[in-house]
Predict the 3D structure of the following.
Amino acid sequence: MAPATASVRSLVIEAIVLELVTSRLGSLFVRVATALKPNG
């Protein structure tokens, strides 16, 4: 039971990190797009 909970915890942490990274990349992309617009 212990290794199962440990693997689930690692999966949850990995999903949270992935979500944080993708949201950060998304906000960075939006920031770059608005900066490249002539009337951003």
About this structure: The longest helix spans residues 2-36.
